[in-house]
């Protein structure tokens, strides 16, 4: 059986331009305050992409996307200014991850694993549709997000997680890959590998897929689009902007070593690049 990647888009999200990008030199709280309170503009609707990996060991889902319950702020904390002022979510019932899998004639039990880049609401709101699936999260990330109030403050929506939710925790026990000294093993044959990409949040994880047609870098929120990555410009609400820049440089270094198709979660051009297997050709490191 071949290895391939396809997109399951769980609706769209609009964010503030200063959420999408700000100077890395400002303190974290000031950047977040500007995105929430100081910017009244919106980006275009951005995709909320999850990725389905077909693999001989069984299908693997990368990220779980957004819940339809989050549309129009329904079900999101009324007291949290980030959820009420910084995001505009549009997810139809037929765009929920469970419905999208059903359209592929897949059930949660059919999945070998669900790998979650991080538990922010638009990446980790699907576990209620996947309660019988094996969900994998980096140990460092879960250590930061396991307390539900803290997770909510940091942009997760644990009210959408199943009762007693506790994912399987991945350790950095795999061999080096490019600039990453250690990796997260996901498949036995090494064709699907997790790499640590912290900065957006602690313990953020990306996935590299060595498929038949190309190598794919599934980036979650390590960047919001390929152009920002190439310019080494981070998002505006990350927890550690300088660590985030370090990850962008590692990805560029990897792309210089290995032809790779870059697929962030919210890049409007990701679907086109995937269809055409457009390889990312990075500029020189800054």
TrEMBL record:
<keyword id="KW-0862">Zinc</keyword>
<dbReference type="Pfam" id="PF00753">
    <property type="entry name" value="Lactamase_B"/>
</dbReference>
<protein>
    <submittedName>
        <fullName>Beta-lactamase-like protein</fullName>
    </submittedName>
</protein>
<comment type="similarity">
    <text>Belongs to the metallo-beta-lactamase superfamily.</text>
</comment>
<dbReference type="InterPro" id="IPR001279">
    <property type="entry name" value="Metallo-B-lactamas"/>
</dbReference>
<keyword id="KW-0479">Metal-binding</keyword>
<dbReference type="GO" id="GO:0016787">
    <property type="term" value="F:hydrolase activity"/>
</dbReference>
<dbReference type="InterPro" id="IPR051013">
    <property type="entry name" value="MBL_superfamily_lactonases"/>
</dbReference>
<dbReference type="InterPro" id="IPR036866">
    <property type="entry name" value="RibonucZ/Hydroxyglut_hydro"/>
</dbReference>
<dbReference type="GO" id="GO:0046872">
    <property type="term" value="F:metal ion binding"/>
</dbReference>
<keyword id="KW-0378">Hydrolase</keyword>
């Amino acid at each position: 059986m071949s290895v391939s990647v396809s997109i399951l888009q769980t609706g769209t999200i609009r964010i503030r331009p200063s959420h999408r990008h700000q100077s890395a030199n400002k303190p974290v709280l000031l950047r977040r305050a500007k995105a929430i309170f100081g910017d009244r503009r919106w980006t275009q609707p951005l995709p909320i992409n999850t990725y389905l990996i077909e693999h001989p060991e069984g299908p693997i889902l990368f990220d779980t996307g957004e819940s339809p319950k989050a549309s129009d702020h329904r079900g999101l904390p009324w007291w949290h200014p980030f959820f009420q002022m910084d995001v505009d979510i549009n997810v139809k019932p037929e765009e929920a991850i469970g419905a999208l899998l059903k359209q592929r004639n897949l059930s949660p039990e059919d999945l070998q694993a669900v790998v979650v880049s991080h538990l922010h609401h638009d990446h980790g709101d699907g576990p209620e549709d996947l309660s019988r699936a094996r969900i994998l999260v980096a140990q460092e990330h879960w250590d930061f997000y396991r307390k539900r109030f803290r997770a909510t403050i940091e942009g997760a929506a644990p009210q959408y997680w199943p009762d007693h939710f506790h994912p399987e925790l991945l350790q950095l026990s795999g061999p080096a890959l490019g600039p990453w000294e250690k990796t997260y093993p996901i498949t036995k044959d090494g064709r699907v590998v997790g790499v640590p990409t912290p900065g957006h949040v602690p313990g953020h994880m990306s996935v590299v897929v060595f498929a038949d047609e190309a190598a794919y870098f599934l980036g979650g929120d390590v960047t919001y689009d390929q152009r920002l990555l190439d310019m080494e410009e981070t998002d505006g609400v990350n927890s550690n902007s300088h660590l985030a820049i370090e990850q962008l440089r590692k990805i560029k270094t990897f792309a210089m070593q290995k032809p790779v198709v870059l697929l962030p979660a919210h890049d409007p051009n990701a679907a086109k690049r995937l269809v055409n297997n457009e390889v990312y050709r990075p500029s020189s490191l800054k």
